[in-house]
Amino acid sequence: MTDRLAAIVGARYVTTDPDVLAGRCVDYTGRYRGKAAALVRPGSDDEVAAVLRMCRDARAYITVQGGRTSLVAGTVPEHDDVLLSTERLSAIGEIDTVERRIRAGAGATLAAVQRAAVDAGLVFGVDLAARDSATVGGMASTNAGGLRTVRYGNMGEQILGLEVALADGSVVRRHSEVRSDNTGYDLASLFVGAEGTLGVITSLDLRLYPTARQRITAIAGFDDLNALVDVGRKFRDTDGIAALELIDARASALTAAHLGVGAAVGGAWQLLIELAGDVDHTDVLADLLNDADLIGEPAVGIDTSAQYRLWQVREAVADVLGVYGPPLKFDASLPLSMIAEFASAATGLVAGYAPDAIPVLFGHIGEGNLHLNLVRCVLDAEAEGALYSAMMSLIAACRGNVSSEHGVGTRKRDYLTMSRTDADITAMRALKTAFDPEGRLNPAVLFD
């Protein structure tokens, strides 16, 4: 099989080296590991299609890998798979500044797309802390959200067109020069959020936006999480909202200890707010915070350097938590009315299973998309599994969704029924069978 892959992409882009494969078979958190037979790195959509045809003929399973920033073992192989990396599909085309769009290869990093947009005086709407590693193809496959979702929406709302190689080796090229195109099925949307189970995204047409001329950032401190949620509810519906982030004071304390970057305000919970647009939003910010139950005065940043300082804790959270070893991560969306109840119940739940663990909660409060990380959570496999299942049940009991922006991957496939009905899952399986009859694309993801 290696020779046949090399004939398609070139020998230098195929490897079976055990050390290389071992590094590719562990996920971003370091908690989940798998095994693979080979790594192949095609350089064009035609090469991707040829690799898929070859793997079909060889009856080989395929796990697709982009930046490998999945937090739910979405790129961890389970069947001695062929690892298909999109890293060479990284070309970025010229920006159409009139229509405000750009075409990028699936392997282009978010940071590269952002730089290209900024150079053209525009902005790309999705932003993640993992911007230097995350690829736009992977972000589309999980319908990633991130720090700007409250303003621009998820990744799917940025996609104007795409190219995708199917399991049979054919390539769907869905591009349109018009904004309104309602011709037949919206095939492109099927592959957004499908986590690589229906096809391999090879390139995307992405929407860009004008750059805001004025921006103001603030952090406000709260002791009462419900009070923070009430303020967040007001801001998320405000014209000009650009970011709305919840930060746990425990995260701020860890960031201060390891990076020397302390919290800008007091309180058990902090709300990072950013407003942007063509007008000054200072008065709007002041009015909405005027009657809030704050701890002290909010910290406000008007110039770029002050705004950068206010963002530092939120930007650094994920890396700082990893200092203590791989955290056990939960990604959920919850009704805003249930967030405080969930936070309290989750803390009690963790104490019962892992008394030494430190629960840290942060995330995109405008959407109720929260990331619960358990630091210093050292359990054997059976105990960890029990804790994970209990937390999933708690999320469901709080009327939440067990997967918000990280996807289902391998880690959450057993909990799919907590957020989807039997009819939903049957319909999804029908789509999987239609696009990938032999189940060879990302076979460990979504379904067992």
TrEMBL record:
- One matching Pfam family, short form? FAD_binding_4
Ranges for the FAD-binding PCMH-type domain? 32-211
Query: Which PROSITE patterns does this UniProt record tie to the protein?
Result: FAD_PCMH
Required cofactor(s): FAD
A molecular function (GO) held by this record is:
oxidoreductase activity
Instruction: Determine if Flavoprotein is one of this entry's keywords.
Output: yes
Give the UniProt keywords, A-Z: FAD, Flavoprotein, Oxidoreductase
This protein's source sits in the domain of life called Bacteria
Biological processes annotated in GO: respiratory electron transport chain
Q: Does the keyword Oxidoreductase apply?
A: yes
Family membership noted in the UniProt record: Belongs to the FAD-binding oxidoreductase/transferase type 4 family.
PANTHER family, per the entry: D-2-HYDROXYGLUTARATE DEHYDROGENASE, MITOCHONDRIAL
- What protein name applies here? FAD-binding oxidoreductase
